């Protein structure tokens, strides 16, 4: 335990060798958690050592997306995170009973996030992904304070109106000195059997958000039944059906980071 504890201060301090990427969105339901889980598995498939913190307090879903209900095990006063699909993970959902909702106030959220960073034995991670709650709430501000050197990926849909809210999420990152890596457009066109593409949620929202933020559009992930089914089954599409167009787009995103 003393040896583990010794690795604590530098776990994710300013000199850390771990790349910390917060996945943010302006609003819920844009596929932020689905993208985070699949991106984590895709990065692990590239041979990287990957951890995920599920900090989406009200919509924690990373354990289900990765098909696990395991909890961290205690070693002294450290926690060893469970591993699923080659990814180490902790979630707020692991610390509430059953499927209860979480109604914590800011300071408690801040402490929990701090614990996830300091008291979880992550080992040598190449990448730590953080699934943020949607919007610009307490967790985003806490994370900015705790990890000013984190980079931020903004997930949005192709809807033009979504670009406005995505922009607000990125502003919080800017204010705390974090770098916005780029925009990921999710739920882009749905390929039809006749070869045409149905733009269910419109088009251009990702490009618009990227233009306004002055960052690249890093990926366009199409609507995909396989992606959604993989999420429901806890079997990420990037490993289960790697030729699915959504899986290909996420693997491309992993390669570009
Ligand atoms: P968020 O984390 O932004 O709230 P989720 O990742 O929970 O969003 O996704 C919301 C819903 O949309 C889920 O049911 C998920 O399976 C589905 N979904 C996400 N991305 C896609 C996609 N590209 N194609 C089809 N369904 C998707």
CATH fold type: Rossmann fold
Major beta sheet summary: 8 strands, mixed
Coarse morphology: globular
Number of strands: 12
Distance between the termini: 34 Å
CATH architecture: 3-Layer(aba) Sandwich
Helical content class:
25-40%
What is the radius of gyration? 17 Å
Each distinct ligand: adenosine-5'-diphosphate
Overall SS class: alpha/beta
Q: Could you please describe the fold and organization of this structure?
A:
It is built from ten helices and twelve strands. Helices cover 37% and strands 22% of the residues. Strands 5-6-2-7-1-8-9-12 form an eight-stranded mixed β-sheet, with helices on both faces. Residues 1-9 have low confidence and may be disordered. It has helices at residues 2-6, 32-45, 62-65, 106-118, 138-146, 160-175, 205-213, 225-233, 237-240, 245-256; strands at residues 19-25, 50-54, 73-75, 78-80, 83-84, 87-91, 127-131, 151-156, 179-188, 190-191, 197-198, 217-222. The protein is an alpha/beta fold. It has a single domain (2-256), classed as Rossmann fold (3-Layer(aba) Sandwich). Adenosine-5'-diphosphate (ADP) binds at residues 25, 28-34, 59, 61, 186-187, 221, 223-224, 227-228, 231, 246.
């Amino acid at each position: 335990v003393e040896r583990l504890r010794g690795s604590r201060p530098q776990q994710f301090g300013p000199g850390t060798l771990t790349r910390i990427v917060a996945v943010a969105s302006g609003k819920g339901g844009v596929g932020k958690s689905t993208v985070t889980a699949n991106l984590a598995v895709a990065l692990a498939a590239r041979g990287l050592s990957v951890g995920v913190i599920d900090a989406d307090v009200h919509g924690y879903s990373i354990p289900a997306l990765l098909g696990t209900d395991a909890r961290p095990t205690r070693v002294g006063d450290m926690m060893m995170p469970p591993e699923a699909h080659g990814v180490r993970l902790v979630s707020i959902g692991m610390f509430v009973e059953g499927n209860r909702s979480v109604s914590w106030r800011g300071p408690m959220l801040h402490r929990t996030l701090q614990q996830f960073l300091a008291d979880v034995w992550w080992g040598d991670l190449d990448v730590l992904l953080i699934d943020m709650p949607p919007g610009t709430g307490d967790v985003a501000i806490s994370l900015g304070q705790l990890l000013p050197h984190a980079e931020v990926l903004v997930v949005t849909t192709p809807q033009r109106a979504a670009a406005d809210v995505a922009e607000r999420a990125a502003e919080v990152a800017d204010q705390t000195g974090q770098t916005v890596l780029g925009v990921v457009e999710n739920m882009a066109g749905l390929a039809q059997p006749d070869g045409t593409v149905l733009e269910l949620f419109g088009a251009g929202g990702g490009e618009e958000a990227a233009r306004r933020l002055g960052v690249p559009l890093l990926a366009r992930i199409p609507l995909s039944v396989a992606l959604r089914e993989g999420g429901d089954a806890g079997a990420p599409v990037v490993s289960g059906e790697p030729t699915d167009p959504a899986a290909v787009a996420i693997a491309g995103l992993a390669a570009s980071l």
